[in-house]
What we know:
With 186 residues, the protein is α+β, with helices and mostly antiparallel strands. It has helices spanning 13-27, 34-54, 95-109, 124-129, 161-185, and strands at 4-7, 57-64, 67-75, 81-86, 114-120, 133-142, 145-155. The strands form two sheets. Strands 1-2-3-4 form a four-stranded antiparallel β-sheet, sandwiched between helices. A three-stranded antiparallel β-sheet has the order 5-7-6. A hairpin with a 2-residue loop joins strand 6 (133-142) and strand 7. Helix 1 packs antiparallel against helix 2.
Amino acid sequence: xDLQIRLATKEDLPEILELQAQSLRSLAIGYYKPTQIDxxxxxxxxxxxxxxxxxxxxxxxxxxxxxxxxxATLLTWSPRIGGLYVHPNFVRQGIALQLLSKIEExxxxxxxxxxxxxxxxxxxxxxxxxxxRRIRSTHFRLGKEVIQCLEMTKTLRNESAQETQxxxxxxxxxxxxxxxxxxxxx
Length: 186
């Protein structure tokens, strides 16, 4: 398969939202109830729309023969993956791993040493295959729905003693900010 990966533009948003919805509605069955999937589709649609408006996400798109088949997002304000979706007709063809690799490259350019993700239950095996390790089971609320997930992390590069000293303050500050934003969402 001839796969092209590129940065998304605002014009891609309708196609991005459609792919996310198709992926969630197909691949999350058996892991989440239909009402939970509906909430995920809505919240992830809002997240992508805000990502463009607020420029707080970098979104990579994967396409083949001019058709969008996958997407992955990296938050610009925190070392976190915002989403990873593959069209249901194109799963298990290496697309998600190629998109993850692109996200990890972008994270290293931003000098992130580790990358975290709140993995959907349906994606845990994929992230483990890519070298992510489990941190803890957790959940978040979307309206009345409680969505179970797993926090995972991957070390992208080891840090020197000097980098540890210099970066620890800013890393702590960045983590405080993320925790504050996460706390506000509950």
